[in-house]
Design a protein that fits this description.
The complex is a heterodimer of chains A (about 775) and B (about 280). Chain A contains 18 helices and 35 strands. In chain A, α4 runs antiparallel to α18 (about 745-765) and α7 (about 170-180) runs parallel beside α8 (about 200-210). The model of chain A has no long low-confidence stretch (mean pLDDT about 90). Chain B has a single domain (about 1-275), classed as Domain of unknown function DUF4159 (Rossmann fold), CATH 3.40.50.12140. Helix content of chain B is about 35%, strand content about 15%. Chain B has helices spanning about 1-5, 10-25, 40-50, 85-100, 135-150, 160-175, 240-245, 255-275; strands at about 65-70, 75, 80, 110, 125, 150-155, 180, 220-225, 230-240. A seven-stranded mixed beta sheet of chain B has the order 4-1-5-6-9-8-7. A two-stranded antiparallel sheet of chain B has the order 2-3. In chain B, β2 (about 75) and β3 form a beta hairpin. Mean pLDDT of chain B is about 85; it is low at about 1-10, about 15-40 and about 50-55. The interface of A and B includes residues 350 and 367 of A.
């Protein structure tokens, strides 16, 4: 027997009725007279008790007097006619909106055979006396279906349970507005609560409460699946450069498979590009694994993260999650400035020899006033063969054309104060990447402490030691570095750790032991003589960009060292991935994005474009246009308008008519010159998100009911809903007085009190 | 061409003269003859003789490294690898440090081909290779060195006889790689100095009125061997003797034009190897 049943047994009505009603004494003059008479009778009785001696002590007599007085008081209370005053709906004078979840998650068969949709359909059958039959007897019903949008239904047979999203808040708001002009007793919500599209639930609930529209929510399905594995979420970059190693955080949740190991497959267009073993967490918990794969094919790629369906799983569709990754076959231009000839230059350039996605424009100060310019793939936009002839850029326009800057062993004094500030701004404002390499003129040894570049770096520059310091250090990844795409030297974390153990030591000549708060350390160096580990590789987000510190001075040892096999590609891969990482997320002057990468056919998609000039100041008066090429080959031209609320931001929308890829080419023209272009891709596809997080969301449904003044039900007590909804303050109601004097609790109290008095008297032989 | 060179008064010339004077003033120039008790023991023998000075505490970026290899013949009990050693090396490094930003170790650094330490020095100098006769393990070690990223600078061998010997030896190391003449538009001639001719640098005998050539090596060549990616692995200076020009730059009777050229080409080669 549950609490509510027990409560109803003693108090005659359910707690819900007490919550809705006001407690009063509906006494008549006769009642008062009777009560007065009762008190009058009680007085001599009490006096009589005081005179009784027998075997009793004063304490016994006091107890007997209290018990007798309580009986009298109880009688008085009953005679004063305690009652509940509640508002009840007038039969057939009020409306009730029935909102039925029509999304795909309702197709899940929690119980194994019966689906949620079948259960709901059963409730909606007019012959069903459990719910809809009773409701129809008392109310005029209006039926709605909802998924991403809500719509009126004439008949429950119109339900398809095929919606691609669930927007509970939208459905409630639609129901409230649709029935706003009618006497509305409440809304009945039949849903699994697997909401994935609501944005403003709190506002909706406030509006319902103010309008006195309670929601009676019925949770459909199981709160916890017996057995299920779900790839809940994937955090992967939207845009990557071709051949970049991509790290994706994959959240996996499970029930019923605790401690088991499963394989996670990463598939690019159906081709398996990576696999890894995953030990499943405790039941109900989530685990995050870092999957690594190489994006070797250019273009928009659908990358699937999949775990094989295990026996007995309730939902099979949530074992795979797809994400759209745009692999760009573009060339990023990086400025590498080296203050002295170093072998590192040659080896890095060699590592990038046939890498067409990274163009390293190298400037080496070969003598105090002489520079060696090493230009790969001359580009007229950068001066062609004459690129960097003027030395390190002296203006922001010149510097900001590059995607990233690599600073080698060059002292801070080489730069003017403005150039140092430019480097800082390059990262924080332009959003470029900065990589600082170790060397005898780098970091604190190069005099960078106190300069703007020191602010940019992810490491703390302690004052250099009085005597030059150097050490050969064994390098190992930190916990974070083990699964980072740049420092994971193997298919798996374990293989990578093993590989790192055999890597030759590297020389460091800059003592760096601390990373800044907010920075992440990927590699540390240790030796027998060091007390604190050396920070070998650290990075941080800085403003709009990213800064990386690599304190090693001779990574070329990873190519040339005696212990390195000749065919080993670690050095090449390290630098290719390092520089890809450095320029990842570095955008140009025109930055386009869609409000979502994947959408359903027929949905409206918004193109959002940020436009900057060549010093990366927002431009509000540009002509921005987009060409949307759909899967059927048709093109649509969009004129984007400045949004006004954000500087340099322009927006326009298009409708994705059919399933397939939509490529959006954006160009921006300023007052004086072209500002640039960008390309962004989205995909219209059949979405499967309804099957993720598909357990019945009791928390959400109960919150909806509680905050709106309604009540939450499950299949076990849904038959109580028709009765409860009668006690509503919305719509056309009448006030009812419900007697409480005859509730069983009074009877049991009376019997209990009299019985205990009798027992005491019997034991003391008083009568 | 030589007249043009003579007419040019470059900073290199002045620098070379000044460093020559410095060398003559006090730096050790000639090493003690070392008994050749097996090439594997040569490094140890040199250490014993005190010819390899201990390195500074702080490692340098660049070590002018001379290859110790097995050869037929030699001088004063040493193999041919040791010709001009260590004075030429020391004097060249002196100039390299003066003329460029290269953080070069001021000293000599002779390493056997089979020493794993060799792989710490991506630039390698070898001369008198006309008498080179590498043991199989040296061949293997040199191949590994070059394939891993090393750069070999060949100097001071003359005539067709010595060429044939060197060609045979280098074919053992790089059997599938072609030896090609480098044209003057190759970047190695323009990395630091613009070199627009190929000089025949004579040995020190020029001070006694000797010819610029030796044997039948009348025409100087600069040749190269590239890997499959186009990286220059070996730079071959044939019918010329850059090492003598470094070694005798402090000799007032040794013509400056040759030392100029010798310094220029070697500086270019080093900067080229460090950046390519």
């Amino acid at each position: 027997m549950g609490f509510e049943s027990l409560f109803e047994f003693f108090f005659k009505y359910k707690p819900f009725v007490f919550e809705r009603g006001d407690f009063v004494f509906a006494a008549t003059p006769a009642s008062f007279a009777a009560a007065a008479l009762l008190v009058a009778v009680a007085v001599p009785i009490v006096r009589q008790y005081r005179q009784v001696q027998g075997n009793s002590t004063p304490r016994h007599r006091l107890a007997l007097m209290i018990v007798r007085a309580a009986v009298v008081a109880l009688g008085c209370v009953v005679l004063l006619r305690p009652s509940l005053v509640v508002a009840t709906a007038v039969p057939q004078q009020n409306f009730v909106g029935v909102l039925v979840d029509d999304s795909r998650s309702m197709q899940i068969a929690d119980g194994g055979v019966t689906t949620r949709a079948e259960q709901v359909s059963n409730w909606l059958n007019p012959e069903n006396a459990e719910l809809i039959g009773q409701l129809e007897e008392r109310f005029r019903l209006r039926l709605f279906s909802f998924s991403d949008v809500a719509r009126r239904l004439d008949d429950a047979a119109e339900l398809r349970f095929s919606g691609l999203r669930t927007d509970v808040a939208g459905a409630l708001e639609a129901g409230r507005q649709e029935l706003g002009g009618l006497p509305l007793s409440g809304l009945v919500l039949l849903s699994d609560g697997a909401d994935n599209d609501s944005e403003s639930l709190t506002e909706t609930l406030n509006a319902l409460r103010q309008a006195d529209v309670p929601v009676f929510a019925v949770g459909v399905g199981e709160e916890t699946f017996a057995r299920d594995i779900e790839v809940s979420r994937v955090e992967a970059p939207r845009d990557v450069m071709q051949n970049a190693a991509v790290g994706a955080d994959v959240v996996i949740r499970q029930r019923g498979f605790e401690g088991e190991t499963v394989q996670l497959y990463v598939e690019d267009g159906g081709r398996i590009v990576s696999t890894m073993d995953v030990e499943l967490p405790r039941s109900g918990d989530s685990t995050v694994v870092r999957a690594r794969f190489v994006a070797d094919e250019a273009g928009p790629r659908i990358v699937t993260f999949r775990i094989d369906v295990a026996e007995g799983e309730v939902v099979c569709q949530n074992n795979a999650l797809e994400t759209l990754v745009t692999v760009r076959d573009e060339q990023a231009r990086i400025l590498y400035f080296e203050g002295e000839p170093r072998h590192e230059v040659g080896f890095i350039r060699r590592a990038l020899h046939d890498d067409r996605n990274i163009a390293l424009a190298t400037l080496v100060r070969s003598a105090p006033n002489k520079f060696q310019s090493l230009i790969v793939d001359p580009d007229e936009r950068f001066g062609g063969e004459h690129e960097l002839f003027g030395g390190f850029p002296k203006t922001r326009e010149e510097l900001y054309r590059y995607s990233a800057v690599v600073l080698g062993s060059v002292e801070a004094d080489y730069f003017t104060r403005d150039q140092l500030q430019m480097i800082d701004d390059f990262v924080s404002q332009r959003g470029g990447g900065l990589l600082a390499l170790g060397g005898r003129r780098s970091f604190a040894e190069g005099g960078y402490a106190g300069t703007p570049v020191a602010e940019t770096l992810p490491v703390v520059l302690d004052p250099p030691a009085a005597e030059a310091w150097h050490s050969e250090l064994q390098v190992a990844p930190t916990l974070f570095g083990r699964t980072h795409p740049v420092t994971q030297f193997g298919e798996t974390s374990a293989a990578s750790a093993e590989r790192w153990e055999t890597m030759p030591p590297l020389l460091a000549v800059n003592r760096v032991t601390r990373a800044k708060p907010g920075a992440a350390i990927l590699l540390e160096g240790t030796s027998e003589t060091l007390t604190d580990p050396q920070v070998m590789l650290a990075y941080q987000r800085y403003g709009a960009g990213k800064s990386i510190a690599l304190t090693a001075a001779d990574t070329w040892q990873w190519q040339m060292h005696y212990d390195m096999p000749l065919d080993d590609m670690t050095h090449e891969n390290f630098w290719r991935q390092m520089l890809r990482w450095l320029v990842a997320d570095v955008a140009g002057q025109v930055r386009a994005q869609l409000d979502r990468d994947r959408f359903a056919a027929g949905e409206t998609v918004t193109v959002q474009v940020d436009v900057f000039d060549d010093t990366y100041l927002a431009v509000n008066d540009a002509d921005v246009a987009a060409t949307v090429a759909g899967p059927d080959g048709r093109e649509e031209i969009l004129d984007l308008a400045w949004t006004v609320d954000v500087d340099g931001r322009y927006e326009a929308s298009f409708t994705a008519a059919a399933e397939g890829f939509y490529q959006v080419d954006v160009t921006a023209v300023g007052r004086d010159a072209d500002l640039g272009s960008d390309v962004v891709t989205g995909q219209a596809a059949e979405l499967t998100q309804e099957f993720f997080g598909a357990e019945m969301n009791r928390e959400l449904l109960a919150r909806v009911a509680e905050e709106s003044g309604g009540r939450f039900y499950t299949a076990a007590n849904v038959d109580e809903l028709p009765g409860d909804i009668t006690f509503t303050e919305g719509g056309t109601t009448v006030t009812e007085v419900l007697d409480l004097w005859d509730m069983p609790l009074f009877f049991f109290l009376f019997v209990g009190l009299v019985g205990s008095e009798w027992t005491v008297r019997k034991l003391r032989r008083l009568a | 061409m030589k007249n043009r060179a003579l007419a040019r008064s470059t900073a290199v010339g002045l620098a070379a003269l000044s460093l020559g004077a410095a060398m003559a003033a006090g730096l050790p120039v000639v090493g003690t003859p070392v008994p050749q008790d097996g090439i594997g023991d040569m490094r140890e023998a040199l250490d014993r003789a005190g010819l390899l000075r201990s390195r500074d505490e702080l490692p340098h970026e660049f070590y002018f490294t001379r290859a110790i290899y097995t050869s037929n013949g030699g001088y004063w009990g040493r193999g041919t690898w040791a010709i001009d050693y260590p004075k030429a090396d020391q004097q060249f490094v002196f100039g390299l440090r003066r003329l460029t930003n290269v953080d070069a170790y001021q000293g000599d650094n002779a390493v056997t081909l089979t020493d794993p330490e060799l792989l710490r020095y991506p630039f390698l100098y070898a001369l008198e290779v006309g008498y080179m006769n590498m043991r199989p393990e040296e061949v293997e070690a040199l191949r590994r060195y070059l394939m891993a990223g090393g750069f070999l600078f060949i100097d001071d061998f003359w005539g067709s006889f010595e060429w044939r010997n060197f060609e045979m030896e280098i074919r053992r190391v790089l059997p599938d790689h072609e030896i090609v003449d480098l044209t003057l538009d190759h970047p190695v001639f323009h990395t630091f100095y613009d070199i627009d001719y190929i000089e025949q640098v004579p040995s020190v005998r020029i001070v006694n009125g000797g010819p610029t050539y030796e044997q039948d090596g009348y025409v100087p060549y600069v040749r190269g061997i590239f890997d499959d990616d186009g990286r220059l692995l070996v730079l071959i200076n044939w019918n010329t003797d850059l090492g003598d020009a470094w070694e005798w730059v402090d000799n007032p009777f040794y013509p400056l034009q040759y030392s100029n050229y010798a310094y220029q080409l070697a500086v270019n080669a080093i900067l080229y190897s460090m950046s390519h």
